[in-house]
Design goal:
- The structure is a single chain.
- The chain has helices at about 5-20, 65-80, 110-130, 160-170, 190-205, 230-240, 255-260, 270-385, 385-390; strands spanning about 25-35, 40-50, 55-65, 90-100, 100-110, 150-155, 180-185, 210-215, 245, 265, 395-400, 400-405, 415-420, 425-430.
- It has about 425 residues and is α/β, with parallel strands linked by helices.
- Among the domains are: about 5-125, Nucleic acid-binding proteins (OB fold (Dihydrolipoamide Acetyltransferase, E2P), Beta Barrel), CATH 2.40.50; about 150-280, Dehydroquinase, class II (Rossmann fold, 3-Layer(aba) Sandwich); about 390-430, no CATH class.
- The strands form three sheets. Strands 1-2-3-5-4 form a five-stranded mixed barrel.
- Strand 13 and strand 14 (about 425-430) form a beta hairpin.
- The radius of gyration is 52 Å and the shape is elongated.
Length: about 425
């Protein structure tokens, strides 16, 4: 039996496909890989099992340069995002088999409405899960601080939107001061979710240094917004302890990130304007309160001044009446005291005259007895007189004016004074 060459076999397959599959087909698949090479687009298509997410079908697909530019631009314009890996799409394809390169599907069109519907479904699923978990409105419960000046900015360092944001803050019409700090992140493409979450984690480590977080995107295409419609990013934003303001330039529907944030604005410039207006309003309220307080104080002072003037006018008359009353009361009190004192003196004089007759002998006896006791005490004191002790050859040592009774009361370096009958000596304890 004669065998076919591989080329002959592949040519036979090509002819069979060309005869059997003559139409173009719409197919639903997920993009597992997408890359552009010299204007052509090369894709890897995949279908996953609904239950275990395992791949059940794979195929290679190509879109030639002549078709790719138009297909890509149409999709981005209508769907509002880039084509990227992980996206579920509906493609119009026809089969192609090459003897040397094998089989692939040639893409002639991509249905953006299908992807928009799939994205809407995924977005709704994310929103419902956030609501079930009770975190969807957590950011809305946070109050932007009155003096929100310390701002953590999550954006691309080289983005025009970040520059516009900073310029708007710095050159505001009110001369207000703000202190923005950039936390760099990728704001478009497949790594948006991961990069923004990492930036949020960096902010969280210094959370006490900031009043609000601003996530802004500007200067790039507005079509690549899928990175802001993810569950992980939404959960991180919803649970963040600081109010988050978003200005990611979404010109179509709100992203999930916009929905869960504290405040959503369209552009980075609008985010800066919001912060300026917020702080300006606070300062206006402070100034109004200050003026109201000053007005109230001045009015109160005026009222009190009038009251004091009226009181001052009444004081002389009131004092005169009070003085007369006090003088009259003092006169009566003086008379009563004099009368009572005279009466008391008379009574005491009478009693003393009676007592003195019996008291003289007793007093004389008592004086004699106490005089004898005093003589005994004097003799005893003379024996205890330190001067007599010194005369008998004794000495007295003092430390800081106090008599030293025990050697243990002294330590090395203490200066003591020793008193003798005819002088004193100072010594240092060794």
């Amino acid at each position: 039996m004669k065998a076919l060459s591989l080329y002959e076999l592949n040519n036979l397959v090509r002819e069979t496909i060309a005869v059997s599959l003559t139409d173009e087909y719409w197919v639903e698949a997920e993009l597992s890989e997408l890359r552009e090479v010299r204007g052509h687009c090369y894709m890897e298509l995949i279908q996953k099992d609904l239950f275990n997410n395992a791949p059940v079908a794979k195929a290679a697909a190509k879109c030639w340069k002549s078709k790719w530019v138009g297909v890509r631009d149409k999709f981005e314009r209508i769907a509002g995002q880039y084509l990227h890996a992980g996206l579920k799409v509906m493609l119009k394809v026809y089969p192609d088999f090459h003897e040397a390169y094998g089989f692939s599907w040639i893409v002639t069109d991509i249905n953006p409405e299908f992807t928009m519907g799939d994205m809407a479904r995924k977005r709704l699923e994310i929103i419902n899960k956030l609501k079930v978990d009770g975190v969807f409105d957590l950011q809305k419960d946070l109050q932007i601080p009155m003096f929100a000046q310390r701002i953590a900015v999550i954006s691309s360092a080289n983005a025009a939107g970040y520059g516009d944001f900073c310029n708007q803050l710095e050159n505001n019409d009110y001369g207000l001061k703000f202190y923005p700090r950039l936390f760099p992140a990728i704001m478009q493409g497949e790594n948006v979710e991961k990069s923004v979450i990492e930036a949020l984690n960096d902010v969280y480590e210094k959370v006490d240094d900031f009043d609000v977080v601003v996530i802004i995107r500007g200067g790039g295409a507005t079509s690549d917004m899928s990175g802001f419609d993810t569950l992980a990013l939404a959960e991180n934003v919803a649970n963040f302890p600081l109010p988050i303001i978003t200005g990611i330039g979404h010109e179509r529907d709100e992203s999930v990130l916009d929905m869960v944030s504290n405040t959503r604005v369209k552009t980075p410039t609008a985010a800066a304007a919001f912060l300026v207006e917020h702080l300006s309003d606070v300062y206006s309220r402070v100034i109004d309160a200050q003026e109201e307080i000053i007005t109230t104080i001045l009015h109160r002072m005026e009222v009190e001044n009038i009251r004091l003037q009226r009181l001052a006018e009444k004081i002389p008359m009131l004092f005169s009446i009070f003085k007369s009353q006090q003088i009259s009361m003092l006169d009566k009190l003086f008379v009563n005291i004099v009368n009572r004192m005279n009466q008391k003196v008379s009574t005491c004089s009478y009693k003393m005259s009676i007592i003195s007759k019996d008291l003289i002998p007793v007093v004389q006896y008592r004086l004699t007895k106490e005089s004898y006791k005093l003589q005994l005490i004097q003799q005893k004191l003379e024996t205890l007189d330190p001067v007599l002790l010194l005369k008998r050859g004794y000495s007295i040592t003092t430390f800081k004016g106090k008599v030293v009774k025990k050697a243990a009361d002294l330590k090395r370096g203490d200066e003591v004074e020793t008193r003798f009958e005819n002088g004193t000596v100072k010594s240092i304890i060794e």
